[in-house]
């Protein structure tokens, strides 16, 4: 039986998850990625996958057990330090009050491990590397809306649906909206310290098994341990967008750049915080961009977006990959239902109705992405606060109190229901006794 021709642009977690979901439900597709292979560039740090989001998507993909084999539950812990080294929170040792329960069930996994798991699950020939997209154009001729993909060295024609999973600077997004990412106000450097246990064991212990935040006044060192023994640190602060070119740092010299960066911006931070940058093997400037909160577009048949292409966020709430994989899950399941109920019944009419699942997905995604976007913006302003890390602890304490109040409310409601049920039972018992007595009297007369 024929199937719609679907092309996915971008082999990140969102695009790979969608491809896997489509294939296991009998819908063939292709992924086109600009990289030359899966190891062509550094894939970044690790990701925390939430139970109701990315983990659910992996269950639907049939990959949950493989995920558990590489997931690091020990990486869920958080440390928060003041710049002078005073510790405010250490979930690993039990110092301070843990974050709210909503942060539970979020094990870490290295981004490369997640991608490998998804790539290896795809049918051979699905993922086409070395395809740098230049443009998406409407196919010439034909009676239905189809699209051709123009790459650097080739053209792939006749797609019924093109899904842009091509990240922050998406080429597919141009066909749906004029909106481009906007600067978030946060800038700084991305530094990678390899084999930290061999370099500085005391510093490694300071970082711990999960995330380690050193929060100053609008200036931070945000560190996270990866599964390969490296620690990724981000020296982020509130800076102008053109900071990289106007700060006066010589980026051509790795060692010089690290020293100049620390000397300029980390006065008052202790040596441990500084050394997470100074001892790094790699460092690069990294401005943070985002799409405006509540960003939407008018639906266009045969085109849609998932992941960062649809709703780019900064990483400060730790939800980006989860929203992206939820996008893939939502779109994949809607396309599965549409193919079964519409396309398979009438392929000739099916293409024109592909607007149904994609439009429904977009409306659902817009609301979900806006909620996650607001949460991310809130956390950005907690990470970069003039009072350092204490406002974040106050936020956690308030959220935990709300959880306790909600739990108490649920107990009270359950108690009321139980009391009501018992009262009804007691009311019914006399009636049953009376009926029994009447029946006994009638039996005696009859005898």
Provide an overview of this structure.
There is one protein chain. By secondary structure, the chain is of the alpha/beta class. It has two domains: 6-72 and 107-181 and 292-385, FAD/NAD(P)-binding domain (3-Layer(bba) Sandwich); 186-287, D-Amino Acid Oxidase, Chain A, domain 2 (2-Layer Sandwich). 43% of the residues lie in helices and 18% in strands. It has 14 helices and 19 strands. It has helices spanning 13-24, 54-61, 64-70, 111-120, 196-199, 201-207, 243-246, 254-265, 271-278, 308-311, 320-343, 347-350, 355-383, 390-446, and strands at 6-9, 30-32, 46-48, 78-81, 87-90, 108-110, 127-128, 133-138, 147-151, 155-159, 161-164, 182-183, 186-193, 211-215, 220-225, 231-238, 282-285, 289-290, 303-305. It has a seven-stranded mixed sheet, covered by helices on one side. A five-stranded parallel sheet has the order 7-2-1-11-19. Strands 8-9-10 form a three-stranded antiparallel sheet, with no helix packed on it. α1 (13-24) packs parallel to α2, α1 (13-24) packs parallel to α4 and α2 packs across α11 (320-343). It is globular and about 70 Å long. This is FAD/NAD(P)-binding domain-containing protein. GO terms for molecular function: FAD binding; monooxygenase activity. Residues 7-337 form the FAD-binding domain. Keywords: Coiled coil, FAD, Flavoprotein, Monooxygenase, Oxidoreductase. It holds the Pfam family FAD_binding_3.
